[in-house]
């Protein structure tokens, strides 16, 4: 949470637009920070429900992770979101709803 606050503060101070990929478990546990993130300009994206390694899950578990992360976004953005970044993979960028790479991620 402290890194996220620092990210929001630095972005706002420098006029930068950014993206926060939140997990479905983290976002409901940190609603004030989720709302602050949106108020200060970054978009919220789906980073799965519980940040498990997607490559180690069954197809049904992968779908549940994606759906759970999306459902956690609804109270914040009104939809399941338009951005997704899988957890526990070597995919270095975010995907839009059609699976096209759209945003370069950094670590």
Structure description:
The chain has 107 residues and is an alpha+beta fold. The chain has four helices and four strands, in the order H-E-H-H-E-H-E-E. The chain has helices at residues 2-14, 26-29, 31-39, 59-77; strands spanning 19-22, 43-46, 93-95, 101-104. It is elongated. It starts with a helix and ends with a strand.
Oligomer: single chain
Euclidean distance between termini CA atoms: 15 Å
Largest sheet: 2 strands, parallel
**Rg computed from alpha carbons, rounded to a whole number of angstroms:** 13 Å
Structural class: alpha+beta
Lateral arrangement of strands in the main beta sheet: 1-2
Helix content: 40-55%
- What fraction of the residues are assigned to beta strands by DSSP? 5-15%
Helix tally equals 4
Q: Note the overall shape.
A: elongated
Q: How many runs of DSSP E, i.e. beta strands? A: 4
Compressed to H and E, one letter per element, the order equals HEHHEHEE
**What integer is the average pLDDT?**
80
Which stretches are poorly predicted, pLDDT < 50 over at least 5 residues?
103-107
Write the layout of secondary structure elements.
Elements: H1 2-14, E1 19-22, H2 26-29, H3 31-39, E2 43-46, H4 59-77, E3 93-95, E4 101-104
Parallel strand pairs: 1-2
Antiparallel strand pairs: 3-4
Q: Which properties best describe this structure?
A:
107 residues, 42% helix, two-stranded parallel sheet
Question: In summary, what is this structure?
Answer:
This protein is α+β, with helices and mostly antiparallel strands and 107 residues long. It contains 4 helices and 4 strands. The strands form 2 sheets. The protein has a two-stranded parallel ribbon. Strands 3-4 form a two-stranded antiparallel sheet.
